[in-house]
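Reply to dn_fold:

You asked what the input looked like. This is it:
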Amino acid sequence: MDAAGQIAVVTGANRGIGREFVLELLERGATTVYATARRPELLEFDDPRVVPLRIDLLDHGSVVGAAETARDVTLLVNNAGISTGASLLTGELAEIHREMDTHFWGTLDMIRAFSPVLAANGGGAIVNVLSALSWFAAPGTGSYAAAKAAEWNLTNGVRLELADQGTLVQGVHLGAAATDISAGYDGPKIDPQEVPRRSLDALATESIEVVVDDWSAMVKASLSRSPAEFYGQLGELLRAG
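and this is what came back:
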């Protein structure tokens, strides 16, 4: 799938990686980009191809309403997310629920609402912005990592279910990007522009998984080894950092 001529929906388009997806899609010749946010009046794009649209992943009605409005979509980018920092054992259960409701249930709600639209328009593609934390957990990330792990296998599951209608489902993994959501992280961060660039390049070759940075590649490579080995290495990296 080439981005040129596509009609896309991008969730969480008000900042960070979502905003960069909108800009990259425009740069590559997308016909229309539905830029979505909980408060679309705050979106700032100076391009007539951008159509602001309200979507709150915790509001099923807004998701259904958006799918009814954007009947011409050929590409869905599920980017919106949160990070509460809630501990699995001592954090507020409401915050842990909010992470899972956003990343798992919210993403699933979007896919269920928009997959018939994609089917009607020839199949198209879905991009789920995931994380290296889909594959491991680090101190302070338990709730977020659990939600991203669920979203990762959701991505695998819907890929199989949507294959017959010709919808490609891509998962995108990265460590940390220089965005608001990682403001409290002191480690290396990639330029958020790199995420849509790598994702859209991979869509052009029908790649179903994108490993954006070296950190994600290292974590993925560790999955065939003992978890004890990986978490021992992780501890050394955290102490060194």
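The radius of gyration is 17 Å.
Hope that clears it up.
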